[in-house]
Task: inverse folding
DNA sequence: CGGCAAATGATATCGCATTCGCAATAGCGG
DNA sequence: CCGCTATTGCGAATGCGATATCATTTGCCG
């Protein structure tokens, strides 16, 4: 996997957390990161997950993905502008690469538009087919 | 002002809270509701605000407006489908009545789109003109 | 007007994500 | 291989929005 950001020491915990975030094809909750990285470092602590998340954010290696009313998820920071799709069944959040582009026509007159966020809701591919998929470790295809 | 939802007794507190939410032209935080309604009922308690919000939601009189990483705001439930604009300076949230419409082309193949949310960020009319406006009671033009 | 129970205000408490404190562990330079 | 100290794991503590508790107030019906 890739390189870790500048930390004074290289540890199995940091590497496992970093690997899991990079390998995932979608933003992960802190708890998901813990569950997944615990596959490589079984006794991994949630405190270490939070500490590492914070360090990775400070070096702009990962960024937080905030959805309304939900805990933060994290994904690599090098993704270009994109949006999100949340499955209402398995609750997983997926990146949506396309963007409708200019939304200036939505803005009330006198307002200045600087940025926008679009969140789509529905059923993901697997949940659309009738497959029952819950957001547990077993459904997180990482690595 | 309008009628209150079915509650066993009519109180000044309920009426003041309801009035403030209806009169506002934008979704309000619980704290904003407290500040504004306290104009009519000075000793109003935050507990009563939360109790009334809950009751008004249960009767579908108001609904929660959730923005990423922020506390819930509340607005009348009878508004049609719309989106939101948040001013990055005064932090107020405004309704945006227009909607770009069909977003099916954004959805990855195999996914089923059921709903969407769009949040615009920038400067509101007042903050675009250089006027300094902070989200305090004095800036909440209610009633 | 009287009386009962709903509603309120003040404050304590909860829930829960996140952070802290500290002893134990383990990178890594020498 | 040593030793220093960054890092970890564990459990306790924190922060804060929201809710519960309870004595007091107040609608409201008769």
Result:
């Amino acid at each position: 996997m890739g390189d870790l950001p500048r930390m004074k020491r290289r540890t199995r915990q940091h590497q496992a957390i970093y690997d899991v975030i990079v390998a995932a094809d979608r933003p992960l909750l802190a708890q998901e990161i813990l569950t997944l990285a615990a596959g490589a470092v079984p006794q991994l602590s949630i405190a270490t997950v939070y500490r590492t998340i914070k360090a990775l954010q400070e070096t702009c290696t990962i960024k937080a993905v905030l959805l309304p009313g939900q805990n933060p998820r994290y994904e690599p920071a090098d993704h270009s502008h994109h949006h999100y799709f949340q499955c209402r069944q398995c609750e997983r959040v997926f990146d949506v690469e396309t963007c409708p582009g200019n939304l200036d026509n939505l803005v009330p007159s006198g307002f200045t538009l600087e940025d926008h966020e679009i969140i789509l809701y529905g059923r993901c591919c697997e949940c659309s087919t009738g497959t029952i998929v819950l957001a547990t470790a077993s459904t997180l295809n990482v690595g």
In short: The interface with chain A takes residues 66-69, 72, 83, 85, 87-88, 94, 96, 98-100, 103, 105-125, 128-129 of chain B (CB under 8 Å).
